[in-house]
Structures are given as structure tokens and as C-alpha cells.
Amino acid sequence: MVGCIRNEIQELSLEPGWQNYWRGEGYTPDYSEVRHRLEALLDQGYADEVVALGEVLLEAGNRQVEMSHDEGETEEEIASCMDVVFRALPKSSLPPADQMMWAVDRELEDQFALCEGIEVFWQQKHKKADWNILADNLTKRLKLVSKSKDDRYRRDRLTDWIITALKNAGRKVEIIPLCEKEAVRTNSYVRLVRILMETKQWKSAEQWIQKGIQATENKWPGIAGQLRESLQEMREKQGDWLQVAALRADDLIVSPSFETFQTFQKAARKAKVWKKVKPAVLNYLETGKIPKPGSLWPLPEADVPKAKERRSKQFPLIGTLIDIAIAEKRPDEVIHWYDQRKSQKFGGWWSELQEDKIAKALADDYPDRAVDIWKRLAANLIAQVKPKAYEKAAVHLTKIQRILKRRSKDKEWGIYLANIRKEHARKIKLLEILAGLNDKPIVDMR
Fold first, then answer.
1. Rounded distance, CA 3 to CA 10, Å?
2. How many CB atoms lie within 10 A of CB 240?
3. Among residues 351, 353, 445, 443, which one has the least CA distance to residue 398?
4. DSSP character at residue 257
5. Which segment of 39-48, 149-158, 222-231, 344-353 scores lowest on mean pLDDT?
6. Spatial separation of the C-alpha atoms in residues 220 and 156, rounded to whole Å
7. d(Cα 47, Cα 259) in Å, to the nearest integer?
8. How confident is residue 146, by pLDDT bands cut at 50, 70 and 90?
9. Lowest mean pLDDT: which of 101-110, 227-236, 428-437?
10. Residue 27: enclosing H or E segment and its boundaries?
11. Each residue of 160-218: pLDDT tens digit?
12. Residue 416 contacts by C-beta under 8 Å, 6 or more apart in sequence?
């Protein structure tokens, strides 16, 4: 049976899985027989053989999933077999520490979440002595891993397991020195800072944040950004809201958006300076003029330098200013900035979602402008000549209908709808959808 399973794994893994969802065609390798045979082996007490076959299956499965073009069907087939292997592992003749090492090795080899079922093994209770053996073995292995940059990810995953083993072995004192060495070697500063914060070593955490930002700012800006987030989190825990607001202000200046504006606003309110700083923030979004410390900007300098700006900005930042005006229910400002968008390069085109959001914000105070926007959106969708686009167009048409009827302009609505029907008389599916406009509401599913 072991030979049959091994041969079937090799045969099944030769052809990649694939799916063409548009045509309803595809191929998914059927590993059900492999799974049933593994279960039969396990039921008959051959746990060692099942574990050994798991290594063969994972190696072949990694290759096959890498070649496949589907949405996880092939991965699920292989993972279901690996689940049987993980149930067999604690029943095998391997010593407990060797079982743990085997499990770690398989997780390190796994490239496509084929080993998620291994949690069944880790949820069992393992002795401190076995965790101690595992920690020693993994530490020895770390020394053999190449120090080249290409092995950074491999070192980090292995180090994560060493940290877990050290914790469970009661050797927590060894964790931070290990993380400090690895931070310099692999730029894993975020992990080190997280552990320092968990143990409330605030001063050391801040020192490593500063060091990490300096080391990663140019080549690894994502790491530097995470370190800044860690500093903000630390300042929040310490209740230093002025510094949190200063850090969030830098985020807004470097990456201005409605989201960074809201985050800064929340911090500034906590620091009780929002009313003072709001005019300077809006002025920055309009002109690009960065606020300077003073009576109109009562925030201190941030504890770390701002991130480097990696793309140019064109002021005023109309999209962000419109989002703010919508959130604050200021339709006059929405109109003001919306009308200025055409003066900017590429400013004349916005997404359907953005335009619809603006129309909704204008519907009560500027109904004619809202209707104009929805008419344009509907016309663009109808021009796509697709049934789904017609359905989306009907959603906008329903909004137009609602506004015109509310303003006693039923006749105008009737003429507008009749013109659409006349212009697109050959689009049968569209006409069917339009026929329902006066009979039942069109639900906006977005």
C-alpha cells in the first residue's frame, strides 16, 4: 500500500491544476484515494509510514501548486491529505522532541499553506524538556544558515520558531539578545521592538526604533513605516497625545489622504489641539505649505524624522478636500472643489464610485448638479453594452427618478426616460430593465 500511495502521489502531482471560470472548464487533481489510503494505513497502526509519505506528499505538492492556475482547489486537495499525516505524527515512533522538529521542518518547507492542519499537533501539550531540546536544535541550525541577503526570510522564520521554543522552555531571558543580533542581520527590527514593548522595556524599544528607521529608511521604507507605527502605539500607551499627534501629522504630510486626515484628527482631538491645528492642515492640503511650530501649530517636533516623500503631489489635493467636505456635510465646499478638478492634470476623470459619492452629498442642496452627475454615470454605463452595466445604470436612474419626483418634475423624468429608450431601442436587455423602473425599485447592491 505504501508503494501504491507513493506512485499515486508522483502521478497525480505531474499535471498542474487549472481553471477557466469563464468557460466553466478546468482540472483539479483528485487526491481522495491518496487520503483514504493514508487513513487506512493510520487505522491499521502504520503511523510511521504515513509520516514518511507526508514528506513525499509535501515536496510534490509544493511543486504542483506552484505550477497550478486555480483559486486554491489543488491546494485544498493536497492539504486534506496532509491533515491525515499530522494526525499520525503524535502516534509515530519518533521521540516527542523529534516529532516537534519534524513538524517545524514541514512548516518551514511549506510554501502554499498546505500545512495549516498541523495545528492539531501543536494544540497538544508538549513537555518543557522537549521544548528545550527543540530550542537547542533550532539554534544550532540557525548557525548553519547562510548570512546572505537571499536567506533573510528563511532566517526570520527559523528565528520565530526558536523564540517560540525558548518561551515554552522557560528560557525567555535568551529571546531579546537573539532578536537584537537578528535585527541587525536581517532588518527584523519590528519583531524586536514588538517583544520589547510586550515586556514594557520602553527605553530600549525607542532606541531600536530610532536605529531601525535609520537602517531601513532608504531601502526598506515599509519596515521604517511599521517602526513609526510602533512608536505611535508606544506614545499612545504612555498617554503622550501631543507626540502622537505630531507623528500622525507627519504621516498626513508625507501621505495625505482622507484616511491619514481622520487619523490625525483623532489624535489631535485627544491632545486637545484640533481647533488650533485644523486651519493649518486644510491650508496644507490646499497649498502644500507645511505647518511650522508656533502659536498656530502647537505640536512639538516628532520624535523621529518624517518618512521620505516618494512621489510628487499636485496641490490642491482636491480628492481629499472633497472627502473632508463630504464627511463634514459642507456641500458648498464639495461644489467648490468639484468644479476645480478640471483645472488639474488628469483631474477631469474620476471613478464611478467617487462621482456617485459626490452626487449623494449634493442631492439635498444641489439636486440639479447631482442629477447631472448621475445622468453622466448612467450614460457611460449604458455605452458599455453589457447587461451588468445596464443594471448598474438603472441604480443611478432610480436616484434621478427619486429626485425629480420629489421636486414635482415627473414630466421631465418621463421625457428623459423616453429619450433613453428611443436612443437605445435596439438594446433589448436595457429596455427590459428600464421597463421595471416605474414598477419596482432598483436596489443598490454596492
1. 11
2. 17
3. 443
4. S
5. 344-353
6. 16
7. 54
8. low
9. 428-437
10. strand 25-27
11. 999 999 999 999 999 999 999 999 999 999 999 999 999 999 999 999 999 999 999 99
12. 375, 400, 404
Amino acid found at 259: E
Check if the beta carbon of residue 313 is closer than 8 Å to that of residue 256. yes
DSSP-based three-state secondary structure for 126: coil
- In 3-state terms, what secondary structure has residue 220? coil
Structure confidence by residue, pLDDT tens digits, 371-405 = 999 999 999 999 999 999 999 999 999 999 999 99
Residue 168 contacts residue 180 (beta carbons within 8 Å) = no
pLDDT digits (tens, 9 = 90+) for 286-301: 999 999 888 789 999 9
DSSP string, 325-355: HHHTT-HHHHHHHHHHGGGSTTTT---HHHH
What CA–CA distance (Å, rounded) separates 38 from 82?
Answer: 9
- CB environment 338-367: b (16+ within 10 A), e (fewer): beebeeeeeeeebeeeebbbbbebbbeebb
Distances from the Cα of 129 to the Cα of 92, 100, 159, 166, 200, angstroms: 19, 12, 19, 11, 28
- Grid look-up 483539479 returns 28
Range 322-329 average pLDDT: 96
Burial class (CB in 10 A: 0-12, 13-18, 19+), 201: middle
CA distances from 166 to 95, 177, 179, 182, 247 (A): 19, 12, 12, 15, 35
